[in-house]
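Researcher: Go.
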Amino acid sequence: MDLTKLFRLDGRKAVVVGGAGGIGAALSKGLAIYGADVVISSRNIERLKEIAGNLQSETGRDIVPIQADATIDSDVERLVKETLSIFGTVDILVNSQGINIKADALNFSTNDWTRLFDINVKSIMLTCREFGKVMVQKKYGKIINVSSVRGARATKWPGNLGYCTSKGAVDMFTKALAAEFGVHNVNVNAIAPALVDTGFSPTLKDTERLKLYTSNIPMGRIAFLEDLIGACVFLASPASDFINGQIIYIDGGLTTIG
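Model: Structure:
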């Protein structure tokens, strides 16, 4: 192997689901900078078009926006067909979609619970199922799911029962799929950050709460988008060809101490 190309993605075709979000847009940029052409997808086509235009100007790669609701079978099937019609194949799938609906255990409505799991878990199953058919057939692929430290550690902040449970499901889905897809030379891994500075979290605006949160992190800060980009590019690149079924915690050591 040419070690100068260990982390390069030249010629690779990637799909980032949830590409209109802060994390998804950042991961799309990272993949493009390292050489991949990228389809970015979400339900918000206007936001997708804006991000695609900016990323194409910045990176010089083909960035294609495709609107799709990843919780709907027919939308995901269409997303695969349109991706194949544009790129011819798909090598990398990043699932960065997700929401948090906060409610305590005694007041969590069935509708909210179902919506949370549809977006955080069902959508990942659908995208992996449909894009996985392409990867398994050609005996190559990299799947990267965005999980959270909350898949492994609960939080003392109230209202996160559904979110923590859904991310635990993402972790086990990642491991089980890795076991099934590994024989086909398709790697399935996840990145699991702690709180990420995307500019949207209420915690970032609450100085005292942020101070308390970071006091539990050995490195004394929250995650930056660049921290996630590095791990995502690594898992998408030849450097991770023998890494499968792993959850990489991007947490400054939070999960090492409980």
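Model: Residues 110-138 form the longest helix (29 residues).
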